[in-house]
Amino acid sequence: MPVPCLLVDAFTATPFTGNPAVVCLLAGAAEADWLQNVAMEFHQSETAFVYPKNDGYHLRWFTPKQEVDLCGHATLAAAHTLWELNRVPVSQVIRFYTRSGLLTAVKLNNLIELDIPAEPPEETPPPSTLKLALGVEPVAVLRNRFDLLVELASEDAVRQLQPHLSLIEGLPHRGLIVTAAAQSEGIDFVTRFFAPRLGVPEDPVTGSAFCCLGPYWQKKLGKYDLMGYQSSARGGYVRVRMAGARVYLAGQAVTVAKIQLLRGDGMDLRS
């Protein structure tokens, strides 16, 4: 049976900016190998697979190389897709069952707000190749269970950074978050995210990274409501609201394309 899929730009209201994700609406569970092949075919930073559960939906995320434990922008895209296709009433909270536990999404006027676990970082000794990989001296180096977090001296240093991706790929982390306090009006911090190990050299807007950035900048700035900007080529804004062990990420999304996947739910691709 054909599978409906949407290509959605997340954390933006403007097509061809923010972070694109493909959302595939399955009738039920499918084999992981098949899901990985579909993600390789679409070749976006993330492809999300959604299928019904009693009081919500199962949600899995795949990069072109592997399944991941947490992805914010594809979760935002999945919620946007379910509302846009009238699978869920706009007034209803969406419950997603994932490898990172229960995540929820609510519609707040023109924003979608996600409830996601916080992933606070802790200080760590810098890897021996880090300075060479960055080409600049870090101000602080931390890590959480996913990523290495590096603070640089200024917003300009983050925006102008030209790291050595081959050296970043050799680091023993999912990815590298680079951040600095913002000097630009209307935002609290800027960031970029590099994950060549996952087949994503630079991710446009990384929701899961904001689960780390939120607690980090809350502690540094003493603010529970923050606005971050991911300064990639496509760029995107993420509103962050801290609430203990949870992070609330809010942003917009826009559908760019509707696709029909002709090889349906877990079909053997050799047939």
Describe this structure in words.
The protein contains 6 helices and 18 strands. With 271 residues, the protein is α+β, with helices and mostly antiparallel strands. It has 2 domains: 3-116 and 252-261, Roll (Diaminopimelate Epimerase, Chain A, domain 1); 122-244, Diaminopimelate Epimerase, Chain A, domain 1 (Roll). The model has no long low-confidence stretch (mean pLDDT 94).
Question: Can you give me a brief rundown of this structure?
Answer:
This protein is α+β, with helices and mostly antiparallel strands. The protein is built from six helices and 18 strands. The chain folds into two domains: 3-116 and 252-261, Diaminopimelate Epimerase, Chain A, domain 1; 122-244, Diaminopimelate Epimerase, Chain A, domain 1 (Roll).
